[in-house]
Amino acid sequence: MELRQLRYFLTAVEHKSLGRAALELGIGTSALSQQISKLESELCTRLLSRTSTGVVLTSAGIAFEHHARLTLRQAENAVQAAQRERMSGYVSVGLPPTTASVLALPLIDAMRERYPDIQLHLVEMLSGYLANQLNARQLDLAVLFQADTGKRWHVRPLLDERLFVITSPRLAGAPVGETVRLSELGQLPLVLPSQQHGLRTTLMATFERSGIEPNIVMEIDGLALLMQTVRGGYAATIQPGAAAARSGESGLSVVQIEDAHVTRRNLLVTLSEDELSPAALAARVVIVDVARELVRQGKWPGASLYEPPEA
Question: N or C: which end of the chain has fewer CB within 10 A?
Fold first, then answer.
């Protein structure tokens, strides 16, 4: 049974004529008659008696009319309630610069489409600062690369990114070819973010695991300035695929680190469940959906969806 069939039936009752009812509804008389017949077939009873002058209610139709009107009224009330209570509010989301370069605009589009009444506040800064803002309750959600297990955070792994060496062609000792082993990078001068940031922590753990002491000559906590330093030929850097894709377009050399364990995990970190507003909960779902779709479509360079380990 469909709501439109109820509406068609009630319009025919009001006009006592299929022809006049069809005219008001803007459909053909035969189409109206077919829909009412389908309704009667489903109910296994006649609702209307056709006469030479129009239609009249049968005894079953009289009983059905009251409930049909009530059902339509309840459906209209449900629509109005949904429109009045359409998801609204405010949510603040923190994204590291490389992640923002891929995720930010698709996230804005998806939020505007799904939840146009939610005000989205995006903050772009290095992950260490994002973690501090999350702790200070200045952010509802953030994409981080490490999570403090001592905090009352909700943590969900999103995806893993391959890492790339980015250099100026003028830099002495720059790797050549499409891939390079981590063991070949011990003497390469590097510029990296400082210790409080997720990428640096990931890289130091990776170098230590491989028994390599990296040659870090500078620390810069700002992606734009860091990349300008690389372009100037002062040092190389190591970045995920999103930054590497843009760097390749600007004439820098981009070489993938082929070691399988050299990856960066993106974590979607939020405040505890009881601190999140409905708007923040909705945004969390959208971020996961958008990130997964970007990876599936090949629009997140060097990324693969997180696969939980088998039990």
Answer: C
